[in-house]
Amino acid sequence: MKEYMEFLKMKQTNVIESGFELNDNELNNMLFPFQKYCVRRALRAGRFAMFEDCGLGKTIQQLEWADKVQKHIDKPVLILAPLGVIGQTIKEGAKFGYEVIELGITVFDQDLKAGIYITNYDNMENIDAYLFGGIVLDESSILKNFAGKTKQLLIDSFKDTPYKLCCTATPSPNDTTELCNHAEFLNIMTRNEMLAMYFVHDGGSTSDWRLKGHAKQEFWDFVSTWAVMLSKPSDIGFDGTGYDLPPLNIIEEYVHTEKRDNGMLFNDVAVSATDYHKELRATINERITRVAEIVNASSENFIIWIGHDEEGELLRSLIPDAIEVKGSDNKGVKKERLLGFGNGDFRVLITKLKIAQFGLNYQNCHNQIFASLDFSFESTYQGIRRSYRFGQTNEVNIYLIVTDTMQNVRKSFDEKQNSFLDMQKSMTESMNRNINNKVSLSKMDVSKSYQSEYCNIQLGDCVQLIQSVPDESVGFSIFSPPFAELYTYSDKLEDMGNSKDYKEFITAFKFLVKELYRVMWSGRNVAVHCMDLPIQKGKEGYIGLRDFSGMILEAFTEVGFIYHSRVTIWKNPVTEMQRTKALGLLHKQVKKDAAMSRVGIPDYLMVFRKEGVHEHPVHCDISVDTWQKYASPVWMDIDYSNTLNGVKGRDKNDEKHICPLQLDTIERAITLWSNKDDIVFTPFLGIGSEVYQAIKLGRLGLGFELKESYFNEAIKNCKQAESDKCQNLLFDAV
């Protein structure tokens, strides 16, 4: 048991801090108290993330962190940043007393002295990561694309860098799983491990992942051990004076488009991205003319966000005092103009979101115009935040130039915005609930049990409860184990389904199998219901199958069980296709690429025998015809609908499916491999299916269950089986 308890302690998700401790007096006095708190946490952790809203001073915090790291380890620290941010970071660094050195195009095999260095992401391939003892990712949302080349290059290049810091206001602009990429970069946990521990895949789209019901609080507690998220200082208990934003005015400018010859009464509404970009070009004159009218009617500063070079060219001809920053401009021109606008050298800045959406401070401007709406909510949010940020004293006006053909884009933007704001609120509340960096998971209540002359069922962890079962006392065991990461039944450490990967699951499972070997009668069998599991492209990057039945086999044979037999339980592939929408089962896939088509995934009943002979061999009193059906390697006649009702056993956090083992399968196995009055044992009781059938078949049921809502339902089902049995005995007596 000691080894098992140590395993549970290791399973608890605690992030090991690998940094060093400083007090507030050792940090730059120009930092505010909440900034010092964040920097100290990041230094102590060694690998950390600051998810802070625009205007909270991420730049000075990351510079202070980099300065203290380079002094502590006497090695250079590198800041990777968008190109447009570099000049501003160097400028702010000088203001707060930090020397920030911009690297040249290529840095290989150079003896760089300790200090703070900066370069842009595009130059990353020209930098030797091993030269640096610390790395800062400014605008680390660049990690969001799990399949992206840049994300993988960052993870691979800085895998062994001891000190890492991620900084962004939008860590997961599209969905929560994007946080997995930050954790992987920081060497906290791989993306696949996080998906297995905390997320469930709903089927269909390979990107449709959501937090498991039982994992929500645990997930945010976990993230809070390696990140802080702030929308304002008061989120973590500091004075928020001065951190109030002025009003934000969203002004929609609707531009009517001329009727085009499409055979319809009205112009077509852009549906796809392709259609939308066609509409942008078709409406360029109407939109740009309106933008110029707004700007020329005012003497105030403006930022104009465009989507195409043609828009910029037309705007420059209509707005004489406007300057444009283009992607084709050299780095020097880009820096000069972007910094110059912030310094008040120019009144009107025309550029694209992908050029200037990150890191720039433009509180000198409180007017923005989106000449083209962008599909990316993150880009739009970041663009608005160049002006709408702490330190802005004026109301901020955001003009959206919308034509009557762009309704869908506007609707999509609103939906993404609402989703992001909800997620930001949830993250802020949950992640900062635990500022002491402690994660606590609930322990088991093992005080509940139900015993009768027909059964003994107990609430608790099967690995701990089986310790009280005598040696050589069980005649037969049948169960369906948790399918590793497929479903999380609870937030308890003891829950084998609550595992970060299959290795962790099998480690826990082997503790049980070892005890099973001890309690089983010699010469008797254990039947394990399982299936091979689909590997999802959205999680692991490819489509395939995981040999879960093989893992089960290895666990049993390793402790001494003999692999006795395998029964294949047929499932209708059409039903499975309709339920899962699996690519390999779709008929259209046969037409597209039959190499990706596969057969349906059956269930298996894996049967293992403990070596030796028992003094009471099993006498199965069945007919020859029945035996021939039972002896078939494929059971074709199992009724999948013949199960106990699992609906009543669900609690509010349960996922959408509960799958009790089919009563036909249990009945056949108990009949074939046990005698009347034998103890039939299930370590994963669930709602009581195995014990229910054991009682009805004249056996003694023994079962353990860790989930209380299931256990309560199991009691009801066992009592029902006992009632039915008593009635049958009374009828037989008559």
From TrEMBL:
The keyword Protein transport does not apply. Coiled coil: none annotated. Residues 39-189 form the Helicase ATP-binding domain. InterPro entries: DNA_methylase_N4/N6, Helicase_ATP-bd, P-loop_NTPase, SAM-dependent_MTases_sf, SNF2_N. GO terms for molecular function: methyltransferase activity. One of its GO terms (biological process) is methylation. Keywords: Hydrolase, Methyltransferase, Transferase. Pfam families: N6_N4_Mtase (PF01555), SNF2-rel_dom (PF00176). It comes from the Bacteria. This is DNA methylase. It comes from Bacteroides difficilis.
